[in-house]
Specification:
With 162 residues, the chain is α+β, with helices and mostly antiparallel strands. The chain has one domain: 3-Layer(aba) Sandwich (Aminopeptidase). Helix content is 24%, strand content 22%. Strand 3 and strand 4 form a beta hairpin.
Amino acid sequence: MVMTLPQVSDTVPLAGYEIDSDKSRLDVTMIHGFLSRSHWAKGIPLEVLQRAIDHSLCFGLYRGGEQIGFARIVTDQATFAYLADVFVVEEERNAGLGQWLVETILERPELQGLKRWMLVTRNAQTLYRRCGFHEPLPLYDVMERADMGVYQRAAEPAETAA
């Protein structure tokens, strides 16, 4: 499904941008290059990223047919969605494209009526607040089981038995 950019403000370009959920258009090499250097997915192996893409609802952000952004959703399409790996390449930032990408995802028909959307961010709270996200309700504790070294261990050569 291709979405063309609506006129949101004078700072958001009108022509030449699109959002598409067709996985065959994704530039996995570009996505991997960006994510493997990001603070949240540093060192992610290409095979792990490909598996994540295969099992997620993915969105590419394009300018003139070239991919400049990405986001994916992990969801049951009934009650819950997790927004992950959202990015716009640095040279295209501060034009409202990230917000447009997130809002387009939030408006998808198959994602309507979900009870909870979640995401994790270190430095983009302002963007996500503009899209309706907020800190967890005080009634709940957010918990996690995280293995922050999994990609680095996977990249280490296996020890051979003597």
